[in-house]
Design a protein that fits this description.
It contains 19 helices and 16 strands. It is α/β, with parallel strands linked by helices. It starts with 5 loop residues before the first helix and ends with a helix. Helix 16 links the parallel strand 8 and strand 9. It has three domains: 125 residues, Fumarate Reductase Iron-sulfur Protein, Chain B, domain 2 (Orthogonal Bundle); 163 residues, 3-Layer(bba) Sandwich (FAD/NAD(P)-binding domain); 160 residues, 3-Layer(bba) Sandwich (FAD/NAD(P)-binding domain), CATH 3.50.50.
C-alpha cells in the first residue's frame, strides 16, 4: 500500500493552469502537468482505505487505491495496466471528468482529496510516452460483425471492447471525423483533438473500421444495417438541445451553444476557414443562458474570440460554497463550481429567468430578465417570480446552453420504430437491448445527457452484453 501517513506529511498539490494572460490568446489546453516526482508524492497521499469510497464514486469502477499504490512506488507501467483494466480512455476522463471519485475520497471530508484525476492522466500520458500503449489486435476473430452507430465516448468504448473480444466492428459517424462530443463539443482548451486522434488511430490499428460522413437512417437505411450486421449498437448521444420559448426567439444572433462550439473546433482543426464561421463573439456583448459546463465552455470560447463582455445567467439558485446538510460526503458535492473559463472574465448571475428577447432590424440587442425564487411546496420546489425586478441585459450574441433533452428521433430511431421512455430516450432492458431484436443502445441516447465517464461506463456495459449475445447466437 501507499505511505500510510502520506496524507499527514504531504499537502495536496495541483498541477495548476497556464497563466491567464497567455492562455486566452490561444485554444491550447489550459491545464499544466506536475513533474513525475511530485506526481508520485501525490499518489502517496492515498490512504488505501478499508472501504474505498473513491472506487464507489467512480462510474467505471476504477481501482484507484491500487494504481495510486503502484504510482507511488514508481511502477508506472503497472499503474497503467491496472487503470486500463476498467477505463478504455483515461486520457479523456483524466482531463475532463468532474472527478466524482475525489468528491467521495475520504480526505475530502477535510477538503483535501487525493489528486485522483490528475494522477490518472499522468499515468496514461507516461504510458503513451514510454511506449506501454501499442496496438494489440485480437489474436482470433469470431466471424461476427457489429455496427456501432455514433463515435462519441459511449460508441468508442463499445467499439473498443467488442473489437478486443474478436468481433469485426464498424464504427459509423455522421460528421466528417470521429469523436462525437469529444471532438466537436468540448473545446480544445479542455481536450486537445490530437489526444482524440491518437486513441482513434490506435483503435484503427487494432482492427476497428471507422466510416465517417455517413448518417445511418439517411445515407444507409436502418433496414440495410440490420441485414449487414449481426448486432447493432446505437450510441448517437442526446443531441436535441433544449430550446427557450420566449418572445423574439426568432431574432438573428440567438444560437444553440453546440452550434457555436462546434464551429470553433472546426476552425481550430482546419476543417473550415475562420471566414466560414457564421457565429463569432469578436467585438460583441455575449449573453450565455445556462450555468452548466456547456455554458462555461461558451464563456471560454467567447473570451478567446475577443468578446467585449460576457454574461452568464442561470435560472436555478446559486450553489453553496460548501456542502449543505442534505448533500453529505461521500456523495457528489453540489457546490459552486468556478471553471478556468470563469476565471478568465465573466459576470455570473443566478435566479434569473428570461422573459423575452429584444431586437432591432431583426437582430437581437438585449434580453429582458426577471428575478425568481424557488420555494418548497409539498416537497417540491416551485419557481415564483419576484415582482418589479424586470430589467434588460444588453447582448448582440445570445448562446443557449440549457442542456439536451433527448436523441434525434428522426431517421434511424423512427425507421426502426424503437420504443422510447417518457423522456424520449431509447428504452432498453437490463441487457441494453431495445425492443428490436439484435439492436442495443448505450450512452446519452439511453440515459439523457450526462458525463463522459458515464458514457464510457455505458459503452463498456453494452459491449459485454453484445458479446454475450453474439456468442450465444
Amino acid at each position: 500500500m501507499t505511505d500510510i501517513s502520506g496524507f499527514l506529511k504531504i499537502k495536496r498539490k495541483e498541477a495548476g493552469n497556464r497563466p491567464l494572460n497567455e492562455r486566452i490568446g490561444d485554444h491550447s489546453e489550459v491545464e499544466q502537468v506536475l513533474n513525475s516526482e511530485d506526481r508520485m508524492l501525490q499518489a502517496a497521499r492515498c490512504m488505501d482505505c478499508g472501504t474505498p469510497y473513491c472506487h464507489w464514486g467512480c462510474p467505471v469502477d476504477n481501482l484507484i487505491p491500487e494504481w495510486n499504490d503502484l504510482l507511488y512506488k514508481g511502477d508506472w507501467k503497472g499503474a497503467y495496466l491496472r487503470l486500463a483494466a476498467t477505463n478504455n480512455f483515461p486520457e479523456f476522463t483524466g482531463r475532463i471528468c468532474p472527478a466524482p471519485c475525489e468528491h467521495a475520497c475520504v480526505l475530502n471530508i477535510i477538503q483535501e482529496p487525493v489528486t485522483i484525476r490528475e494522477n490518472e492522466v499522468a499515468i496514461v500520458e507516461k504510458a503513451f510516452t514510454e511506449g506501454y500503449i501499442k496496438p494489440e489486435p485480437p489474436k482470433t476473430r469470431t466471424g461476427k460483425s457489429v455496427a456501432v452507430i455514433g463515435s462519441g465516448p459511449a460508441g468508442m468504448a463499445a467499439a473498443d471492447l467488442l473489437n478486443k473480444a474478436g468481433h469485426l466492428v464498424t464504427l459509423f459517424e455522421k460528421d466528417e471525423k470521429a469523436g462525437g462530443l469529444l471532438r466537436f463539443g468540448i473545446p480544445d482548451f479542455k481536450l486537445s483533438k490530437a489526444t482524440v486522434d491518437r486513441r482513434l488511430d490506435l483503435m484503427i490499428k487494432e482492427g476497428v473500421i471507422i466510416r465517417t460522413g455517413i448518417n445511418i437512417g439517411k445515407d444507409i437505411t436502418g433496414k440495410e444495417i440490420l441485414e449487414q450486421f449481426d448486432a447493432i449498437c446505437i450510441a448517437i448521444g442526446a443531441t436535441h438541445p433544449r430550446d427557450l420559448v420566449a418572445g423574439g426567439r426568432e431574432l438573428n444572433g440567438i444560437h444553440f451553444a453546440m452550434d457555436f462550439l462546434s464551429l470553433q473546433n472546426r476552425v481550430n482543426s482546419g476543417h473550415i476557414p475562420v471566414s466560414a464561421s457564421n457565429i463569432n463573439a469578436e467585438g460583441k456583448k455575449v449573453l450565455v443562458i445556462g450555468g452548466g459546463d456547456t455554458g462555461s465552455d461558451c464563456v471560454g470560447t467567447s473570451t478567446r474570440q475577443k468578446a467585449v463582455s460576457i454574461t452568464q445567467i442561470e435560472i436555478m439558485p446559486k450553489p453553496p460554497l460548501r456542502r449543505s446538510d442534505n448533500n453529505p460526503w461521500p456523495y457528489f458535492g453540489k457546490i459552486l463550481k468556478t471553471s478556468t473559463s470563469h476565471e478568465e472574465g465573466c459576470e455570473r448571475y443566478w435566479n434569473l429567468a428570461t422573459v423575452k428577447f429584444l431586437g432591432t432590424d431583426n437582430h437581437v440587442t438585449g434580453v429582458e430578465v426577471e428575478d425568481v425564487v424557488w420555494n418548497p411546496i409539498n416537497d417540491k420546489y416551485t419557481m415564483l417570480v419576484v415582482r418589479d425586478t424586470r430589467r434588460i441585459i444588453d447582448a448582440d450574441l445570445v448562446l443557449l446552453a440549457m442542456g439536451f433533452v433527448h436523441p434525434a428521433l428522426e431517421g434511424l430511431l423512427s425507421e426502426l420504430e424503437l420504443e422510447l421512455d417518457q423522456r424520449k430516450n431509447i428504452k432498453v432492458d437490463q441487457t441494453q437491448l431495445t425492443n428490436r431484436q439484435k439492436v442495443f443502445a448505450a450512452g446519452d441516447s439511453v440515459s439523457g445527457a450526462t458525463l463522459v465517464v458515464n458514457a464510457i461506463a455505458s459503452g463498456r456495459k453494452v459491449a459485454k452484453e453484445i458479446d454475450k449475445f453474439l456468442r450465444k447466437a
